[in-house]
Design goal:
2 copies of one chain form a homodimer.
Chain A: H1 7-13, H2 19-25, E1 33-36, E2 40-43, H3 45-49, E3 58-64, H4 74-87, E4 92-96, H5 101-105, E5 113-114, E6 117-120, H6 122-126, H7 132-152, E7 159-164, E8 168-170, E9 180-182, E10 193-195, E11 197-199, H8 204-211, H9 215-224, E12 226-230, E13 235-237, H10 244-251, E14 258-262, E15 267-270, H11 285-294, E16 297-301, H12 306-321, E17 327-332, H13 334-340, H14 353-373, E18 378-383, H15 390-403, E19 406-410, H16 412-415, H17 421-430, H18 446-456, E20 462-465, H19 467-478, E21 486-489, E22 509-512, E23 514-518, E24 523-527, E25 547-548, E26 554-555
Parallel strand pairs in A: 3-16, 3-17, 4-15, 4-16, 8-11, 17-18, 18-19, 20-22, 21-24
Antiparallel strand pairs in A: 1-2, 2-14, 5-6, 6-14, 7-12, 9-10, 12-13, 14-15, 23-24, 25-26
């Protein structure tokens, strides 16, 4: 494998088709494409909003077992499955999140698939792209500037400077901005107060951007953002600051979904990218519904493992947008199952069927949740690695048989779409329409809702929280926010809130440390465990290796 | 005039031509256009860099008298003159700065000309445009994050946290970010220190972006930015932090000039937009040289009055890029001359030839500087307002006659290009090639250079500064920065550093409060008077009036 080509070399070896041709495959008239060069376009949201969902449109959710350092490959599976469905003669489109530039220059590098299951043009997608994140940051930061200006100009709304929830955002990993004091330097430079910056993907504006169904809906949601509270704790909104119109103007172009292509020339929407902890972790509703209007199959992905990503996809995005996936693909790997069975990262390439067997508890729980709680047909997609042995794959196959779930081993990373053809066949066979089932009804109390997710999805015995948090929940309910669904921010590496508990821990307690109202996005965030909303750079940032030559070719991103 | 159509209505009444057609008029093959929709494109800088300047290419600098609240109209004159030159059968292109979003949502509204002398599409140009400012902010803020990360990870370079000059930037008016403390919250959240945010246009990265002649030159300049000093005061650069490659990668697309059109369908480059005080206040070298390679006439603008804008255009941009304007147009108005003659803003519409006569001292000084110091042919362009009387215009005409300078009254605001046809004729007649003359030689000392500008351009008796500032200058010279040209930041409303001194004050002293090294941009900034590098919002921000309707039409920008 030493001579395996890099992602960037693979991408360069595949010429891209003009984006008009990609649009044409989806029946998009060129007049509704707003092009960014020859290979990226936005599809006019106004045109898309007028289109009905195709009667035969199917939605595939790609989710995974609990993430491990070994990597699962949800994005490559989403891309590979889209390519495979197209190979089988279906009209399929992928719907994915936009990558944040923070990790690109930090530790992780670019994010647009990998190997022979990539999106193109990968460099553009990873740097600025169509400016959506910059527009979201501008809208968020205009709101923040208007808020601090309001304090400075006399504070007619009576905002309590100690009770301001809104933070500013940047799309960079910058830990020194987490906790800051602003407004220093004397009376002409604003009102001093504590605050901080989050990364763009952690902002409520990002979550709103991804959940809005139209520009009017976007503006209304932006107006509902609770930015601060008064001394009597009553909420102050973005609409109170008269900021939501200008914010929506800043986002008016961004909300049209971005169209790109896979290496095999199949269409992919890449639009929006909220965190999967503090927010719901899926691409925009606009992109997913565009797929359902234009293609037979829309393959989409939700962040982290199924306990976080799929749960939020179903309980938040699908509930709000009136969607239901026809089938869920749970991506698993031999390596990550061994990790959940207790194997150290350094030993994951060694065959260990016993550890693998133990680790399957993680897979079982995720599959069970999707089938029993959410009532979804499930297919297991094993993302094959070179070190996987047949004996190990057989352990996985046997378990799938016991569960009565289709399992296919896929090799899209090395083989592109044809490597996922069997998986695509299983997906087509398994897909079945139905009614959306959720983990809880919204008319339950906020406490009942978080408890339902903890016990039904995480396997917890229950939920605990301080009396201060309980009072906060009561206040939200008194203010009329009790009917909102819940968004739980916990570690992605375990079903529990303890990142070190592998497999499928049971009987644990979910401790809620803090609750936050996201009235614009339309959910209440329950913070359970450490929540990182502004990452830091590592000792040797990836940025040090990134360079551009005289001809504009960018190196070191992937 | 009550029924005069708004700028946005005028723009909407003029259909835009496809940007390919605009490019074709300049001989740009479509393959070298990177389109943003149908009406905006970047022209590939790699292709442009290979083109020679046309033998007959002429460069017109549009500058003005000292700015007053009455407004002079440099941008409308630049657009009108470009349209007029095209009407006269010349191939002319405008080269202008990109507007910052800060003022758009603050007090000033959009900036892309006005009336019948506008750029199109004006809303796009004023909001995000092609993402250049977002890319500049991202590059600047990545550098800042790498710097604070370096402190946090052990500070191997020995940076003195009290001597960090680099600030973060945002493209928003946000006074509360001027003076801040970052890195609070304990040892995992960085190293606490004082800093602040500037607006993007005030950043050295913006100045570098506008002065770079190629991607390689850009990267080198970025690497030379002095971000901080050690305890022994020795400089630490962006290259020391290994940040310049990634910064250049973030700017690799942005450095290609943006092409749009005037209302009359003539080409205009709109690219870069540094402040005219702390930086040099002109569009990018890339855009100006693109014009000189592709058109017969390139009409460009420099910020503020000629004492700041034209001086920096000539002493900084032209000197560095090997340019020389063939003619300078000094924009003046009857109203602003009356203002300089002592008339209050409220009374400017009343005829007052005596005050006008007094105010001409300001025009005389600017014209004299351009002719005598810089050796440029000059034309006076009077931007006519409805309240101007013939008697007043005659006073202006007489003075031009006495000065031996052509003067033409232009009505492009109401009449478009044909309203500036006489002015264009005078420009064509006056233009003459020559050798660039500057206000000082770079081999003079830094003190001699600032003194030359103060005495020769501002009419000052001399320069004064504290011994601390003098020591700082000596240090710059010891470090090898003594050969850099100087960039003086002072009020734009007076030749002196006192904003209230109208007309043409003489014998004043220029007090230097602070000096800053911009080693990447390649100049030393002399701060004389208050320097605002992060504006604030007014009591009632323009943003409150800005809105977008369901169809995406944005209102309230203009």
């Amino acid at each position: 494998m030493t001579s395996w080509p890099s992602d960037v070399d693979i991408a360069a070896s595949r010429p891209m088709r003009p984006i008009d041709q990609i649009g044409e495959r989806l029946g998009i008239p060129p007049a509704h494409l707003f092009r960014y060069g020859d290979h990226v376009a936005k599809v006019d949201h106004r045109w898309l909003e007028g289109l009905p969902r195709r009667a035969d449109a199917k939605l595939v959710l790609v989710t995974a077992t609990s993430p491990t350092p070994a990597g699962e490959g949800k994005t490559t599976t989403t891309v590979g499955l889209t390519d495979a469905l197209n190979l089988l003669g279906h009209k399929a489109v992928a719907a994915l999140r936009e990558p944040s530039m923070g990790p690109v220059f930090g530790m992780k590098g670019g994010a647009a698939g990998g190997g022979y299951a990539q999106l193109n043009p990968m460099t553009d997608i990873n740097l600025h792209f169509t400016g959506d994140f910059a527009a979201i940051a501008a809208a968020n930061n205009l709101l923040a500037a208007m808020l601090d200006n309001h304090l400075h100009q006399g504070n007619a709304l009576g905002i309590d400077p100690r009770r301001i929830m809104l933070k500013r955002v940047l799309d960079v990993n910058d830990r020194a901005l987490r906790d800051i004091v602003i407004g220093l330097g004397g009376p002409t430079h604003g009102v001093p107060r504590e605050t901080g910056f989050d990364i763009v993907v952690a902002s409520e504006v990002m979550a709103i951007f991804c959940l809005a169904t139209s520009l009017a809906d976007l503006k209304e949601r932006l107006g509902r953002i609770v930015v601060a509270r008064r001394q009597d704790k009553s909420p102050v909104t973005a609409a109170d600051l008269k900021a939501h119109g200008a914010m929506a103007a800043l986002l008016a172009q961004a909300i049209s979904p971005n169209l790109v292509q896979t290496l095999e020339g199949n269409p992919a929407f890449v639009h929006g990218g909220p965190f999967a902890n503090i927010a719901h972790g899926c691409n925009s509703v606009a992109a997913t519904t565009a797929g359902l209007a234009l293609a037979d199959w829309t393959v989409t992905e939700a962040g982290f493992g199924a306990d976080l990503g799929a749960e939020k996809f179903l309980d938040l995005k699908c509930r709000m947008a009136g969607l239901r996936p026809d089938v869920a693909v749970v991506v698993a790997t031999v390596r990550s199952m061994k990790y959940h069975g207790g194997v150290a990262v350094a030993d994951l390439e060694r065959e260990d069927t016993a550890a693998l067997q133990r680790g399957l508890a993680n897979l079982d729980r995720h599959v069970g949740n999707l089938r029993e709680v959410f009532g979804l047909p499930v297919v297991i997609g094993v993302n094959r690695f070179p070190s996987d042995t047949e004996a190990e794959l057989d352990v996985l196959r046997r378990r799938a048989g016991e569960l009565g779930v289709a399992l296919q081993v896929a090799t899209h990373f090395t083989d592109g779409g044809k490597g996922a053809a069997d998986l695509a066949g299983a997906v087509v066979t398994a897909a079945a329409p139905g009614t959306l089932r959720t983990a809880y009804d919204t008319d339950a109390s906020l406490l009942e809702k978080v408890t339902a997710v903890a016990t039904r999805i995480y396997g917890a015995a229950g939920v605990e929280m301080s009396s201060a948090v309980q009072r906060q929940l009561e206040q939200f309910e008194e203010e009329g926010y009790g009917a909102l669904p819940v968004c739980i921010a916990k570690t992605q590496t375990s079903f529990s809130a303890d990142p070190s508990l592998r497999g499928a821990p049971s009987g644990h307690t979910l401790t809620v440390r803090e609750v936050r109202l996201n009235a614009g996005a339309g959910f209440v965030v329950f913070v359970c465990g450490d929540l990182m909303t502004m990452p830091g750079l590592p000792k040797k940032p990836g940025a040090e290796r990134i360079d551009v030559d005289e001809d504009g070719a960018i190196h070191g991103l992937f």
